[in-house]
């Protein structure tokens, strides 16, 4: 099983700041099957990024995905108030598909 | 645009079988491009991928649930289903169905989720 580790656990930032979230895999992942989700309390996860760096439909360009091999990054270039949420990475290339534990981005 | 909708009882008694259905619209479940998956999120915890079915009927389940879970596909109704037997309070969760790319590079689509509580 591929274990995904996300860091930091919590990121405290101010609106307008840049957020950098890390997702590290226990073995190399095909970039085609690395995704990032945003989740707010009581809501279903919302797909932000698929294929490591492709933005999902309707996702603003301040969300940027990058990486390869075992190291992947989600960057939010300038935090808007609605971006304070929980972020998950997922690999869906090798069964069992797995999620990271999440990074919470909260308001400083 | 594809849409997925979970349905089923919101309350299940301990030791009984949890049964959920995902109805797919906007795409054929007979597509070889996607896996049809179930994912859950227990209260206060992270996302847990449960398993998938494929249009051929092939399935994959996570080892920790493999002895209790079954995912099946109904091509006529364009639905797929989850059955989880011998449930306990630890199976209380929001359950999501999802369409996940298998042979294409594409977005994953999720249902809105349904809360299932295991309680007597």
Oligomeric state, counting identical vs distinct chains: heterodimer
Query: What is the mean pLDDT of chain B?
Result: 96
Low-confidence stretches of chain A: none
Kindly, what is the distance between the CA atoms of the first and last residues of chain A, rounded to a whole number of angstroms? Answer: 35 Å
Taken from the alpha-carbon principal axes, the silhouette of chain A is globular
- Secondary structure: number of strands of chain B: 11
- From the spread of the alpha carbons, the general shape of chain B counts as globular
Helix and strand run of chain A: EEEEEEEEEEE
Your description of this structure?
- The complex is a heterodimer of chains A (108) and B (120).
- With 108 residues, chain A is mostly beta strands.
- Chain A contains no helices and 11 strands.
- In chain A, strands 2, 4, 5, 6, 9, 10 and 11 form a 7-stranded mixed β-sheet that branches. In chain A, strands 1-3-8-7 form a 4-stranded antiparallel β-sheet, with no helix packed on it.
- The mean pLDDT of chain A is 96.
- Chain B is built from no helices and 11 strands.
- Chain B has strands spanning 3-7, 11-12, 18-25, 34-41, 47-53, 59-61, 69-74, 79-84, 93-101, 109-110, 114-118.
- In chain B, the strands form 2 sheets. In chain B, strands 2, 4, 5, 6, 9, 10 and 11 form a 7-stranded mixed β-sheet that branches. Chain B has a 4-stranded antiparallel β-sheet with strand order 1-3-8-7, with no helix packed on it.
- Chain B is globular, with a radius of gyration of 14 Å.
- The chains are: A mainly beta (108), B mainly beta (120).
- The A-B interface holds A 32-33, 35, 37, 44-45, 47, 50-51, 54, 56-57, 88, 90, 92, 95-102 and B 35, 37, 46-49, 51-52, 60, 62-63, 96, 100-101, 105-113.
